From TrEMBL:
The chain crosses the membrane at residues 250-273. The keyword DNA-binding does not apply. SUPFAM superfamilies: Immunoglobulin. The lineage of its organism: Eukaryota, Metazoa, Chordata, Craniata, Vertebrata. The keyword Lyase does not apply. InterPro entries: CD200R, Ig-like_dom, Ig-like_dom_sf, Ig-like_fold, Ig_sub, Ig_V-set. It comes from the Eukaryota. Residues 38-150 form the Ig-like domain. This is Ig-like domain-containing protein. It is a single-pass membrane protein. GO terms for molecular function: signaling receptor activity. It is found in: Membrane. GO terms for cellular component: cell surface; membrane.
Length: 332
């Protein structure tokens, strides 16, 4: 009888030891063994919560896992399972294990000394839209929160004035993730504006509204507002209208360009003519100079005449000879 009792005690001890080894040593939780996620060790019922959140494009988004503040010493693990349009990934931390991140896109899990646990998403974009599931487990319980995160953007609104057939036209342009609705606020009864909508390759919508102003109407009290057609219905207003008339600027620019081209062409022509004149004068000098020297060289050399060297003496001698001959004739 005693032997059977001892065998039962040994068998019971072996079963308990096997379960302890299977569940981990000293209550440690692993995130990396066999790539499987840990399960909560608490026997309390886990609460599952569903909610929607909206994030503005280009901002840093903070997702809170739970409103309950839990000290890190009481924590087992926090796991964020992220399901996006083009990928699925996971970010997790555990008390007795290293951090785990398969997203590698700037998202990070942040825990504070007050016992809060957040997921930080920097520079939120359309690619970050999706479902975010936070699985948190601690000594006194645990919870699962499924968060659907959608992006929204305030309409990028701009406006200007144009002149069309002698009438003033106010133009309002709204760009955003969704096609915005444009509404005009005027001190007079305005006519129906002309609406044009288009979509770019970046999946952004552009809506243009053109409003013809009555004659002698002032645009100082004119305002256009754009409301995004999404769940947030964000609204943007614009009232600083100024003229941006391209019909007046282009002729002025063309006249200036033509005048500049004419001046450049005229100066170029003068430069070419001056260069040709200089080249012609140099050509004449080069061509004519050898002819003159050649004519000088070809001229026959005159014989030496002593009378050319002493013209006055020769003249006096001849005059004297004629005078003497005349005197002898009269004396005879």
């Amino acid at each position: 009888m005693e032997r059977k009792l001892v065998l039962r005690v040994v068998l019971l001890f072996a079963v308990c030891l096997t379960r302890s080894l299977a569940s981990g040593t000293d209550g440690k939780t692993s995130l990396h063994s066999n790539k499987t996620l840990p399960r909560s060790t608490s026997t309390n019922e886990r609460l599952t919560v569903y909610r929607n959140e909206y994030a503005e494009l280009g901002t840093t988004v903070t997702l809170n896992c739970t409103n309950t503040k839990i000290a890190w010493r009481d924590m087992f693990f926090v796991i964020w399972k992220i399901h996006l349009q083009d990928k699925e990934c996971m970010i997790a931390v555990a008390k007795n294990d290293s951090d785990y991140d398969t997203c590698q896109d700037g998202k990070k899990l942040n825990r504070t000394s007050e016992g809060t646990y957040h997921l930080i998403i920097p520079n939120f974009s359309v690619q970050d839209e999706g479902n975010y599931t936070c699985d948190i487990s601690y000594q006194s319980g645990g919870s699962v929160e499924n968060i659907k995160v959608s992006a929204f953007a305030r309409p990028d609104l701009s406006g200007w004035l144009e002149s069309e057939h002698g009438h003033t036209v106010a133009v309002c342009e709204a760009k955003g993730k969704s096609a915005a609705s444009i509404h005009w606020e005027t001190p007079w009864n305005s006519s129906s504006p002309i609406i044009q909508a288009s979509k770019t390759q970046d999946k952004l919508f552009t809506v243009i509204s053109r409003l013809h102003l009555p004659r002698h109407a002032s645009h100082t009290n004119l305002t256009c507002s754009a409301t995004a057609n999404d769940s947030k219905h964000t609204k943007t207003r614009f009232s600083s209208f100024t003229f941006r008339d391209t019909h007046v600027k282009w002729p002025t620019i063309l006249v200036g360009v033509c005048a500049t081209c004419s001046i450049v062409a005229l100066l170029t022509g003068f430069y070419i003519m001056r260069k040709n004149v200089i080249a012609l004068s140099v050509f004449r000098k080069i061509c004519c100079k050898p002819d003159i020297s050649a004519s000088n060289e070809e001229k026959p050399q005159q014989p030496y005449d002593p009378e050319e060297l002493q013209p006055y003496a020769s003249y006096v001698q001849r005059v004297n000879s004629i005078y003497n001959s005349s005197a002898e004739l009269f004396n005879a």
